[in-house]
Design brief:
heterodimer; A: alpha/beta; 6-stranded mixed β-sheet; 13 helices; globular; disordered C terminus; B: alpha+beta; 9-stranded mixed β-sheet; 10 helices
């Protein structure tokens, strides 16, 4: 299948053109204010390089950090009405609890708590309070707010209350945009509700972004399907992203990890993505990113999105180096490197300048760093390698040494052997690993349930949750025949009866292939 | 002394440290307590010695699976509702509240109830740490019956208990939690001021706050905070505090056995460490209960075994401990009250099923 992977970052729009498993071309272009031009420029570059006609492309995959940035920068966020179904529990903990003031005032304003929901054992927490729901819906209908988030206690186990409220809203407010929490997160009501609210707030922006991506394809005469990559390295259809923009929050680091896997074929490895300001260190397990076990804040809002486990340290090509070479970063000239770094005629001493002075690579005007004392250069080089070594060491799974793959624009900074690695690899095209990661993404599906192995035997429970995960994968565009279970996690619930378990299954498979003359996505 | 909303971050941090890996994530208890303290103002804290001998005291806290409260959120009025039900049942107003345990979210429940009712919380608790069962509280050890008591569930359903034997009571109240959505608030151990003074471990609330402040301010490598930590435990009801190991988690397992979260963590030394070349094994039964290096016991319950992040010194709960984390292990001597043969019979390693006697770490 001929496909193009695109990574739309804050400064660069990267693209990679692949034919099946073979990388035909890759490019790094500037991100433009309208986004569309940057994408079409990147299209043009890889198509020309690969000598491929736009009409022959069968699939385009885009990874983007635009939705993460919107939340962090508190822009493009629409007001949301939040409905919590869980009374009589949780009184005093309404939606938007513990949100930073600036984002709460950007999104918040309307919130409702009504009786209903389920318990851990499937019993009713309380009957759904229809009268209270009707009142809330009437209030929303009378307001200008059209984005609604609905969260109900134990909805990952039983979503009926959320669905019933959503149906009422659709009937009363036909142009409402609704996010139900069970569609976006696992157990943890407050975190799942927060995720649903953030998602609902992004819905209008998501619609505009997806439209601009589609416009880029139309401008180049491409009629193939468009996919967008999500947190776990799998793909969503463009229509799906219009509903679930929040699922892209961590797609950047995920794509770089998956790209590193593709470039090296290493199933288990540590990936270091060295950029201008930070080095982001992640772990590949069976070819996929290892997930974080910690609660993740997005722009100060607590969520339970499953994200890759990333350790970011302040080592990048633009990191500032002190006069004695002992202090490296975290301050950085960032993307101003090419004007402020010494070798580029600027007056800031950066890790890139040190690397050029040491002869590690050739960039800019080497004469401008010839007077840097050898002691300073050696100290800074040693310090940088030891910072990376220590960080890599702390990410090693099970204490094992693994190969280390270096990707990103700053990969060339590393020239010495990293003691924490069995080997250090800088694959060709490592600078566009993100776009390659987007191009190879698969379709996935997940399901989670809390259940008791005393009531349902383990095998039966596993089959039940797996079937639910497979339904999710097929709904997202996966080929049912290709699905395989990639992760089963069983978390015992302490203090409860023996056998009480939180069971989660993740399944991944190939994208259902479609011809370029298809339905035009 | 008063505790207000601005003290909660430090108190929660100190109480997670003293929870020795158990006690659940204090995030949600902290949120509701924050709301209560903002609404009703700071809670009055009273030293045990200031209690009138004939004043009326009880202990209050949550019983159940912390994991359940991720979905079945507690309500801000639940603790006060439980207390009101208890008073109605006993036909008497409570003068002051005591904590089950200072470790984890149960350090906050009495504070929440005290603030919303305008009565003092006593500076002390029944465990000086976290432990899993009701009979492990010093109130029970001092011979104070757990009942009459009440439980209060999320619906506001009240149950009355009359069962003076602490071990039987533990079984009944646990079953009640399982049947009531997985989490209840219990008000128990009615006692006089004189009885409370004799039974409670004094000063643990103010100590948890002080400890939390130290951890907040000293946020940094465990090696650097070991000295100040040792100092802060000096002269308290606890024994000495010492770092007994540092390294990297190289294995961790856990499963549910008999209603407990049971597991093991292996910490391997890294580099040229001061703690030898052998790995440390920590046995988990809700809390970190036993630390061994080879056949040698480095620390055992009721001494406190605390695992912190090596870089930030933040305490790590058992459910968040994971492969690859760099950690330091601290041990702290248990209060003298837990070291008598009678107490060790209910909180010592053998009670938890280990084939070891209590071996004081220092």
């Amino acid at each position: 299948m001929l496909r193009i992977g695109i990574d739309v970052g804050g400064t660069h729009t990267d693209a990679a053109l692949l034919d099946g498993d073979v990388l035909l071309a890759s490019t790094k272009a500037a991100t433009t204010a309208d986004v569309v031009t940057g994408i079409t420029n990147a299209f043009d570059a890889v198509l020309a390089d690969g000598k491929i006609a736009a009409s022959a492309v069968q699939c385009v995959m885009i990874g983007t950090t635009q939705f993460t940035n919107a939340v962090i920068e508190r822009r493009e966020l629409a007001p949301v009405a939040a409905i919590r179904i869980g009374l009589p529990s949780g009184k005093g903990l309404p939606p938007f609890t513990a949100w930073p003031d600036d984002i709460a005032s950007a999104i918040g304003g309307m919130s409702f708590m009504v009786a209903g929901g389920y318990l851990y054992d499937g019993e009713l927490l309380a009957p759904l309070d229809e009268a209270a729901i009707d009142k809330a819906v009437a209030q929303i209908a009378a307001s200008p707010v059209r984005n609604v988030a609905i969260a109900s206690a134990f909805s990952p186990l039983n979503a009926a209350p959320e669905e019933s409220v959503a149906a009422k809203i659709r009937l009363a407010i036909p142009n409402a945009r609704i996010t139900c929490s069970h569609t976006i997160g696992g157990l943890g009501l407050l975190e799942r509700e927060n995720a649903a609210i953030l998602n609902a707030a992004l819905l209008p922006f998501a619609s505009r972004v997806v439209t601009s991506f589609e416009a880029a394809l139309v401008q180049r005469g491409m009629t193939c399907p468009l996919y967008i990559s999500q947190n776990d390295g799998t793909l969503m259809g463009a229509e799906f992203v219009r509903q679930f923009p929040a699922l892209t929050f961590a797609s950047g680091p995920t794509n770089s990890l998956r790209g590193a896997w593709k470039l090296t074929g290493l199933e288990d490895a540590i990936v270091v993505d060295i950029g201008g300001t930070t080095s982001d260190i992640g772990v590949l397990q069976s070819g996929f990113p290892r997930e974080s076990y910690n609660i993740i804040d997005i722009g100060g809002v607590r969520t339970n999105f499953r994200m890759p486990d990333i350790l970011a340290i302040g080592v990048g090509g633009g990191s500032l180096v002190s006069a004695d070479g002992l202090q490296i970063g975290p301050q950085s000239v960032g993307h101003h490197l090419t004007s402020e770094g010494l070798v580029f005629g600027g007056d800031q001493r950066t890790l890139t300048d040190i690397a050029v002075a040491a002869g590690a690579f050739d960039l800019g005007d080497r004469a401008r760093v010839s007077d840097l004392p050898a002691g300073l250069v050696n100290t800074a080089r040693g310090g940088m390698h030891s910072m990376l070594n220590n960080a890599i060491d702390s990410m090693r799974p099970g204490g094992r040494k693994l190969p280390v793959i270096l990707v990103g624009g700053g990969a060339g900074l590393v020239t010495e052997t990293l003691d924490a690695a069995t080997q250090t690899i800088i694959p060709p095209n490592s600078g566009t690993a993100n776009a390659i990661g987007a191009a190879i993404a698969q379709i996935g599906g997940e399901a989670e349930q809390m259940l008791s192995y005393q009531q349902i035997p383990r095998e039966e429970a596993l089959a039940q949750v797996t079937a639910e995960a497979e339904r999710a994968a097929v709904a997202a565009g996966g080929d049912p025949a290709s699905l395989t279970v990639v992760d089963v996690s069983e978390t015992p619930v302490p203090y409860m009866e023996e056998g009480a378990m939180r069971l989660r299954v993740k399944t991944v498979g190939a994208l259902m292939a479609r011809e370029p003359q298809g339905d035009g996505a | 002394m008063k505790i207000g909303a601005e003290d909660l971050d430090a108190l929660a941090l100190g109480s997670v440290f003293l929870a020795t890996g158990g006690g659940g994530d204090p995030y949600i208890p902290q949120l509701i307590t924050q709301r209560a303290l903002e609404e009703y103002g700071p809670a009055q804290i009273m030293a045990p010695n200031d209690l009138g001998d004939d004043s009326f005291v009880c202990a209050i806290g949550s019983v159940g699976a912390p994991t359940v409260s991720l979905e079945l959120l507690p309500s801000i009025d639940e603790a006060a509702g439980a207390l009101a039900a208890f008073e109605e049942h006993l036909g008497r107003k409570v003068d002051a509240l005591a904590a089950f345990e200072i470790g984890g979210g149960n350090s906050l429940i009495p504070l929440l109830a005290a603030a919303s009712r305008g009565i003092p919380m006593i500076d002390g608790d029944g465990m000086a740490r976290a432990l899993p069962e009701a009979q492990m509280m010093t109130y029970a050890m001092a011979g104070i019956a757990p009942t009459p008591s009440v439980s209060y569930d999320y619906r506001g359903n009240v149950r009355h208990f009359d069962c003076p034997d602490p071990l039987e009571y533990e079984g009944i109240i646990r079953a009640c939690a399982v049947e009531s959505g997985g989490m209840i608030t219990a008000v128990e151990h009615p006692m006089s001021g004189a009885e409370c003074k004799a039974a409670i471990i004094p000063g643990t609330l103010s100590f948890a706050l002080k400890l939390g402040r130290l951890l907040e301010q000293g946020r940094g490598p465990a090696g650097a905070i070991a000295g100040p930590l040792a100092e802060i435990f000096e002269g308290t009801i606890y024994g000495a505090c010492r770092m007994i190991f540092s390294g990297k988690v190289s294995a961790k397992s856990s499963r549910v056995v008999g209603g407990y979260d049971v597991g093991e963590a292996v910490i391997e030394p890294i580099g040229a460490e001061a703690f030898g070349s052998e790995a440390m094994t920590i046995t988990i039964k809700n809390e970190y209960l036993l630390a061994r290096i080879g056949d040698k016991i480095a620390a055992s319950v009721p001494d406190l075994i605390v695992i912190v992040d090596a870089e930030t010194s933040m305490p790590i709960n058992a459910e968040r401990l994971r492969y690859g984390q760099r950690v330091a292990v601290f041990a702290i001597g248990a209060p003298a009250v837990f070291k008598t043969p009678e107490a060790l019979a209910v909180v010592g390693p053998r009670y938890f099923g280990f084939d070891h006697d209590y071996a004081p770490f220092a």
